[in-house]
Amino acid sequence: MIKVGVVGGTGYTGVELLRLLCRHPDVDLVAITSRGEAGMAVSDIFPSLRHRVNLKFVAPQDAELEKCDAVFFATPNGIAMKQAAELVAAGVRVIDLAADFRIRDIAEWEKWYGMEHAAPALVAEAVYGLPELNREQIRSARVLANPGCYPTAVQLGFLPLIEAGLIDCGHLIADAKSGVSGAGRKAEIHTLLPEAADSFKAYGVAGHRHLPEIRQGLSRVAGKPVELTFVPHLTPLIRGIHATLYGRLLPGAGELDLQALYEERYAGEAFVDVMPAGSHPETRSVRASNICRIAVHRPQGGDTVVVLSVIDNLVKGAAGQAVQNLNIMFGLDEEAGLDIVPVSP
Ligand SMILES: NC(=O)C1=CN([C@@H]2O[C@H](COP(=O)(O)OP(=O)(O)OC[C@H]3O[C@@H](n4cnc5c(N)ncnc54)[C@H](OP(=O)(O)O)[C@@H]3O)[C@@H](O)[C@H]2O)C=CC1
Ligand SMILES: CC(=O)N[C@@H](CCC(=O)OP(=O)(O)O)C(=O)O
């Protein structure tokens, strides 16, 4: 059994990790941290985990994380980077759900995240954990940068077109909507029910911190800098991301069968479902599951391609993808603990 610790077990992605890991056949949960709830039984705070997780929260400094085989950080940005080096030196493999190890250019990271990076050397060796792109490197990762939620939906949607060199990489557009759980469990005015319900708004149009992450990933695939307009929106959903992606086909590319391109690219991928031609995937169809559902369209047969990509931000956009990465890192069945039928309605 793989001994696993979770730092930040009271947050939305943390409790989602607990939901997935408590029924994982190869995982033994040994430490779950909280600063505020230390000493409390996990199932007293989260009755959904009664008879599944029989641990108490411990304070991060008392968690003996160095005794784990793997530690997930489900913490705000800037926490894992301070503790990862010590854990790695003790032979622990670190999976960070935050953004500390996602951006290779340290100056760029510091600009977007507004703090000094504490572990640049680990950024250089960290592996970006998008399995459908980086599976081989993930296997041996000591530090795993779990992708952001929007970047997962956007990159999976654009990948086949960019890998095949079919679209103009100078003018990509990602129009993405997220449920409110994307903002985390901490108290903030804009996530209060009366503020977020029955309303809909864009934010971060001038620049969102997921922009450099998406640009970095897609540029690597394209082999040249990619220009992207990324506009996130807050929707009155609890879970879910719906990304509508636009690209202009290059001359001659219109002859190709884009549906076949997508189906072939993701054939054999357990967690990417290319829907039948003409589909409109809905966030509900992936709720609580690790699946990304994608549909590719060419409206009126023109040269604009529209890709629809939906995920659950807390699962394929965070905790589920992190468990998928754990499975790959430890040579387990990639689907272990992740065989979940989406909840509907
Ligand atoms: N929500 C989402 O959809 C997604 C989130 N992410 C990323 O995952 C990370 C966690 O997000 P989310 O679960 O939403 O956040 P939450 O705000 O819901 O939870 C944060 C957790 O971190 C703990 N924590 C806060 N500060 C510290 C600290 N200094 N030391 C140790 N633990 C700390 C908190 O617990 P306590 O205060 O009890 O110690 C809490 O359990 C973030 O980096 C986020 O950006 C990534 C993809 C999607
Ligand atoms: C709705 C909402 O607020 N979403 C968050 C993004 C989700 C997130 O937690 O960001 P990471 O994936 O980088 O960790 C935001 O826009 O800041």
Automatic annotation (TrEMBL):
EC number: 1.2.1.38
Lineage top rank: taxon: Bacteria
Keyword 4Fe-4S set for record: no
GO molecular function: N-acetyl-gamma-glutamyl-phosphate reductase activity; NAD binding; NADP+ binding
GO biological process terms on file: L-arginine biosynthetic process
Domain Semialdehyde dehydrogenase NAD-binding: 3-141
Alphabetical UniProt keywords: Amino-acid biosynthesis, Arginine biosynthesis, Cytoplasm, NADP, Oxidoreductase
Pathway: Amino-acid biosynthesis; L-arginine biosynthesis; N(2)-acetyl-L-ornithine from L-glutamate: step 3/4
Keyword match Amino-acid biosynthesis: yes
Described function: Catalyzes the NADPH-dependent reduction of N-acetyl-5-glutamyl phosphate to yield N-acetyl-L-glutamate 5-semialdehyde.
Listed NCBIfam families: argC (TIGR01850)
Family: Belongs to the NAGSA dehydrogenase family. Type 1 subfamily.
Official protein name in the record: N-acetyl-gamma-glutamyl-phosphate reductase
Organism: Thauera aromatica K172
